[in-house]
Design a protein that fits this description.
This is Tyrosine recombinase XerD. This protein is mainly alpha-helical. Helices cover about 50% and strands about 5% of the residues. Helix 4 crosses helix 6 and helix 12 packs antiparallel against helix 13.
């Protein structure tokens, strides 16, 4: 028989949170309050704790460990410790004696430690919300984003950020030295881009371009009457982007591509944008296929006004390269149409080659019909989580609002999944656009989609029941059909000025009922389904857990479309419900035919 050479006794590791909890425990703080204050759900799950009783056992053993440690060094205090344990009364000097020195020795952090081990639950949740799982993740994030690293993180202000930085610095011997560099000042610090400019800067920081490179004398400029007042290339870009005012998503997409190309022309190629010929266009196509490291940022969360900002977040996928070339070509076509340029040098440049995908919209991300029904049907997974029947997902003693948060997520998931509306449309949907369909067991909702086109979608009372439960949590009256309140709105807000200004009503405990930003609604859906997928008590297979971990709101839109197609909904009806401009786009969902083809081929070779 092989010998077991692992003879070392496992050593309990106590964290700063444990020592703070032990102090409260020895001071007689009620156990439920102690758990609520010091231990998050993630922390309890990581340690295998199922209830407050497990925390009580942990702290009992910890107090004995501290007493044994103290007795080894100071055996004369045995009587004092025995009296304290017998009476259950621990004086402050005794508690300090037990914990202060031990805390210094035993509460050493490691880079791989979870955020929730070292920071209070509310702060840990905020940091995890932006993808920071470990102390190493947090350190890397701060170093790459600079002094303003905390701005995108809810519930973290400048003061708390400095405290976190101080804590990391204090523990640098265990997790490495924190290196912080100053961030660039704000947008008022504009620069003239040209030959001597060191680093690329975003459009809003470009005050001008060196005269020889600004395009005012570009070799492709049209000298006859121009239909825009732009004097140079920067102003031409600004004129083009102005066309997309009010369409923020489209505006950001075009700004990103034109900004990159302008900076490449001036800083890399040393040529005015209005002087580029087909040779330069081909060179740019090669450039975005292999982007130099100094043009790529280390962190996509870096603010645009930071000195660490770069035009690219990393290497582009072939599809992204193709989109970039098409966006720039379209821009140049417009420049020719308005007679700013004589010709379009991109006209003869081929798009980067990409794989012609069988399903270009990645509708394979749609949930299988069976999993969707298990999730969304009456009494399904979402209902059981909201009712707190069986899942650890709901057992979070520190947050009394969590059941309401799940009811909020359920309402959002069902609204998108039963209608196929986009994330942006769901975020902007309001109560006054919702009404029952006469003579049918259906409701209808009018939304404004792409190209500012209105359309009406229909859904069953199942969704209304979820919305009513969500509105009850909000304290709003769902029965009033004339309200312009958002169908889906936060019930808990971050204590930031912008959030308070948007969602709080002065002198009222009830929030304003204004909706989510689309990105925030997306994060809500993803985080809720991720929590469900990670719940070991949820009765779903490993494959289904994997699918739920990758679900985004758009996957729910795909789910609606694929389920509808499988149930023989006519393509033209589905096109109208999804808001597609072309029936060709909708026909992609006839992917359901692929399954039927597989079934028929299987019959062919059966036996």
């Amino acid at each position: 028989m092989a010998q077991n050479n692992d003879i070392a006794k496992p050593v309990r590791r106590y964290t700063r949170v444990d020592f703070a909890a032990l102090r409260a425990f020895l001071n007689g703080v009620q156990l439920d309050l102690l758990v609520d204050r010091y231990y998050s759900e993630d922390d309890m799950l990581d340690r295998g704790w199922e209830s407050a009783r497990d925390v009580h056992s942990w702290l009992e053993v910890m107090s004995q460990d501290m007493a044994d440690r103290a007795l080894k060094t100071y055996p004369t205090i045995a009587g004092i410790l025995a009296d304290s344990r017998r009476s259950g009364r621990w004086s402050k000097p005794v508690i300090d004696f037990l914990t202060v020195n031990a805390e210094k020795d035993l509460s050493r952090p490691f880079p791989t430690d979870s955020i929730s081990v070292w920071f209070k639950p509310r702060l840990a949740d905020a940091l995890k919300g932006v993808g920071l799982a470990s102390l190493a993740d947090l350190k890397r994030y701060i170093e790459s984003a600079g002094l303003g690293w905390w701005r995108p993180i809810p519930r973290v202000g400048a003061g708390k950020a400095r405290v976190i930085e101080h804590w990391l610095t204090q523990n640098s011997q265990f997790i490495g030295a924190l290196t912080l560099e100053a961030s660039l000042p704000a947008v008022t610090n504009q620069v003239t881009v040209g030959m001597d400019t060191g680093l690329p800067v975003p459009l809003e920081r470009i005050g001008g371009i060196t005269p020889t490179l600004n395009g005012s004398q570009g070799r492709n400029r049209n000298t006859s009457f121009c239909l825009i007042s732009a004097r140079n290339d920067l102003e031409a870009i600004q004129a083009y982007l102005y066309r997309f005012r009010g369409r923020e998503k489209t505006l950001r997409s075009y700004r990103k591509e034109l900004e990159r190309f302008l900076l490449w022309c001036v800083l890399e190629r040393r040529v005015a944008m209005s002087s580029v010929l087909t040779d330069e266009c081909e060179a740019y196509k090669n450039f975005i296929a292999d982007i130099p490291a100094d043009w790529c940022g280390k962190n996509p969360q870096i603010p645009r006004l930071s000195q660490r900002w770069r035009p690219f977040a990393g290497q582009l996928q072939p599809e992204s390269q193709r989109y970039a070339i098409q966006a720039i070509r379209t821009f140049f076509e417009w420049l020719v149409d308005v007679r700013y340029l004589l010709g379009n040098p991109w006209k003869t440049v081929a798009d980067p080659s990409t794989i012609h995908r069988e399903m270009p919209m990645q509708i394979e991300k749609a949930l299988p019909q069976q999993l969707w029904e298990e999730l969304a049907n009456q009494g399904g997974l979402l209902d059981r989580v909201c009712d707190g029947e069986i899942f650890n997902a709901i057992r979070r003693p520190k947050t009394s609002s969590l059941p309401a948060q799940f009811r909020l997520a359920r309402a959002a998931i069902l609204l998108i999944g039963f209608t196929g509306i986009r994330r942006e449309e769901a975020a902007r949907a309001t109560r006054n656009k919702l009404k029952p369909v006469p003579g049918r067991n259906l409701w209808q909702l009018t939304v404004v989609g792409k190209r500012n086109k209105e359309r009406t979608v229909f859904f069953p009372p199942r969704v209304i029941d979820a919305l009513k439960a969500h509105w009850l949590d909000r304290g709003h009256d769902f029965s009033d059909p004339h309200q312009e309140l958002a169908l889906i709105a936060p019930i808990v807000i971050a204590p930031t000025r912008s959030a308070c200004a948007k969602h709080e009503v002065e002198g009222d405990d009830i929030l304003s009922g204004r909706g989510f930003a689309p990105d925030s609604l997306g994060r809500l859906v993803k985080s809720s389904l991720l929590r469900l997928a990670d719940d070991h008590e949820a009765p779903i297979s490993p494959e289904e857990r994997h699918l739920l971990r990758s679900v985004a709101p758009h996957a729910l839109r795909h789910t609606f479309a694929t389920v509808s197609t499988a149930k023989q909904m006519p393509p033209d009806v589905l096109q109208q419900l999804l808001g597609h401009a072309s029936l060709t786009t909708t026909s992609i969902y006839v992917h359901a035919q692929r399954q039927r083809s597989l079934d028929e081929v299987a019959k062919l070779y059966k036996g």
